[in-house]
């Protein structure tokens, strides 16, 4: 078992419950590398995965055609290899959670990227704040499933394999860069001991479970993603927030995941965490065996490491009590209830993030005429763009254009799936 290095500044005081920033979906991009530049959209200039990151951020990010503050698509790079069929930069591979889809060959021309965004990355339904928009504006921001058939021939629905993701973004923060590879090796070792096949690509890592690459992030990473019975996929990923809680781990359990090694009543049944993603923080190599046993095999959440979770519908999941105690003897790890916590440091951090984003957008609105804003943000109301006060922008309450973008910076909500 790898030894946890000493001297790392890890926050062991804060309650982890609720420190996951809620998101609608996570797009996990296959790069075949184990480290990336601090900003992933500045990396991979001559690689298909780099084109994919920049193209989608241009569409979904601030100022993009499909920018929606209520549809947070978390884009992260991963060490999984792009599909072997790719021989140039015209395509890229990615996974989409919690819808559990694998796209081995996403075309990268601008038209295809926009179609992919509309088909999979936009929300199925809009936040009530968008009720002020016209029907045509709402349609622009809403997912269009009729566009999905053009991608389905190559798309794989993930049914069998648990996916373990570990932040190892050393160029963003040294703590994750040190702890991530240690956890990757230990997860591979423990999962193999439990009978899973965990394939490692060649080029430095061999089949010993260690991280691959040359120290600069180049190398074969974690092998190509595969969904199969008895297969587990373990990879390093780029920044997901919370470096002070390293090691940070996300576990996605497929919708058909069944309980193993539980009670007679549990054994073989579909686990309560099937189809969900669970975030853990402050994970050390010595914790891995317990996490595999309790979460991967038995579908139970370990409260002391739990940062949050996501249901298959995209709703955020948190424990019902600040202490992290769900308090249900019947189903202590699978029962999710609404949880409201008005003022904590995570909410303040998220509020500050929204403050920065909305302050920037608010000042842009103040400095730009209505016609230009309609061209850049056609989903916004068609009047009073310059009418946003500086005070509103500075407050960061996201009250941009009659409340189209507003943010409740003191509320964390977990919903019953």
How would you characterize this protein structure?
Among the domains are: 133 residues, no CATH class; 116 residues, no CATH class. The protein is built from eight helices and eleven strands. The chain has 417 residues and is α+β, with helices and mostly antiparallel strands. It is globular and about 55 Å long.
Topology:
Blueprint: E1 25-30, H1 48-60, E2 73-78, E3 91-97, E4 101-107, H2 110-121, H3 135-141, E5 156-157, E6 163-167, H4 174-193, E7 233-237, E8 249-252, E9 277-280, H5 288-297, E10 306-310, E11 316-317, H6 345-367, H7 370-376, H8 390-395
Parallel strand pairs: 1-2, 6-7
Antiparallel strand pairs: 1-3, 3-4, 4-5, 6-8, 8-9, 9-10, 10-11
Please supply descriptive tags for the structure shown above.
417 residues; alpha+beta; 6-stranded mixed beta sheet; 5-stranded mixed beta sheet; 13% strand; globular; Thioredoxin-like_sf; Altered inheritance of mitochondria protein 32; Aim32/Apd1-like
Query: How would you state the average pLDDT, rounded?
Result: 74
- Which regions are unreliable across 5 or more consecutive residues at pLDDT < 50? 201-220, 322-417
Strand fraction band? 5-15%
* Extended strand count: 11
Helix content: 10-25%
Largest sheet: 6 strands, mixed
Shape annotation: globular
Kindly name the structural category. alpha+beta
InterPro entries: Aim32/Apd1-like, Thioredoxin-like_sf
Family: Belongs to the AIM32 family.
Pfam families: Suc_Fer-like
Protein name: Altered inheritance of mitochondria protein 32
